[in-house]
Amino acid sequence: MSWLRRVTARFPTVVLARRNLSRATARTTLAVVAIVIGVVAIGTIGAGGEAFKQDQMEAYEGFGGTATVSPVYHMNDDGDIVGGISDQDVSRMRQATSGATVHPVIQRWDTVVRTSSGETSPSAQVKGLAALGTFYEAQSGSIPDSWRQQVVVGSRFADNNDVETGDQLTVTINGSFERTFRVAAVLEPQGFADQLQADRSVFLPFDRLSQLEDSDSEYGSVIVRVDPQTGSISEAAESLETEFNTRRRTISVSEVQEQRERFSQTFELINQFLIGVGSISLLVAAVTIANTMLMTAIEREREIGVMRAVGYPKRAVVSLLLAEAAILGLVGAAIGVPLALGIGMGLNQFLVGDPLAFTAAGLRYVGLGALFGVLTSLFAGVSPAWKSANKRPVEALE
Fold first, then answer.
1. Using CA atoms, how far apart are residues 66 and 225, in angstroms rounded to an integer?
2. In the chain, which end has fewer C-beta atoms inside a 10 angstrom radius, N or C?
3. How far apart are CA 204 and CA 154, in angstroms?
4. Looking at residue 61, what is its pLDDT?
5. Of all residues in the chain, what percent carry a pLDDT higher than 70?
6. How many angstroms separate the CA atoms of 191 and 156, rounded?
7. CA angle 72, 77, 80 (to 5 degrees)
């Protein structure tokens, strides 16, 4: 007797349940497929959602210990919109946040960007930010420390316009300024969570762009950075609020860490909602298995009646039918987990460039899908098993 037979001989109920399932191959296969779909749906949505979240969170990596400052606009008595961040405001920010680094961001909306082939890019956002290399990394080329005749472009801009490092771009601003720049670097993809939406941007030299502004320059936003070893970004944010918003709210200060946490919580809720939608497939699986077990109980009514008549206890009948349901769930989970992991590896490769970049939460969702698959199968088998076990033998044999 082989070791497998010796092991299975210790669990006669499981052997009998497997034999019973093999007598109805089509129904068994459909029930297993339903469980597989449910496990794959939950596991893939969970693991894929975590991969997407991981991809988007990379946009915050270069912004540790930073806060973004945006202007708050108001309407004056004449009905004009007033507000903005000027050079004087930037100086006040530097004084209020002693020890912090203040980086104003210039953004121009009156620009036209043309590639070397002569095509224009209407969605390009032309910006200027000093110390660009401290916030982003280059996908190709390198971000120069000092630059006047070069530009750095975002990954989506480069892909959409077939632009590579070394190509030339012609930038026209306000119809009067027109210069041709060489692309020094293409940035790593940042995702939609990026503070400056760098993926669609063309970064010009900050000094070159600031020379085009008038004497009372207005900036689109300001990035305040504090070294966590020597200061606190929260204290810097409070100082800015006190300096600018005591009488009237003129700026909005948002710590990047808070934005990151809010984004993470929001995405977690969305992921759980999608998993809830995916778990509907397990409800379908439960109905399929309940139907399978019910049909099995009806077809084997006389067989179960004979078992009860010769002294087979109710508990043994319930155990047998639940063992059949458990086998369906275990086989469905055993097939569904590798499929979910395989699809998750594909999503990891696509989103983060590493097929094995599973997070603990992503693997937990795959395990959760398998657990729900087995539990759903067991739950669906309880009612048919209980009804069959409680039927009187004389009624079953009629």
1. 4
2. N
3. 12
4. 66
5. 93
6. 9
7. 55
Residue 215 CA, chain-centre distance (Å), reads 44
Contact (CB, 8 A) for 98 and 277: no
* Residue 187 · residue 127 · CB < 8 Å: no
Which of 15, 35, 7 is closest to 380 using CA atoms? Answer: 35
- What's the start-to-end Cα distance of the chain, in Å? 41
Residue type, 284: V
Helices (H), 279-359: 280-299, 301-309, 314-352
Identify the residue whose tokens are 């000092």. Answer: 146
Who's near 58: CB < 8 A, 6+ residues apart? Answer: 188, 190, 191, 352
Separation between Cα atoms, residue 279 and residue 257, nearest integer Å: 33
DSSP secondary structure string for all residues of 345-358? HHHHHHHHS-TT--
Residue 67 carries which side chain, given as an amino acid letter?
A
Total-model pTM: 0.64
Buried b (16+ CB within 10 A) or exposed e, 228-246: eeebebeebbebbeebbee
Element (H, E) at 392: none
What pLDDT does 30 receive?
84
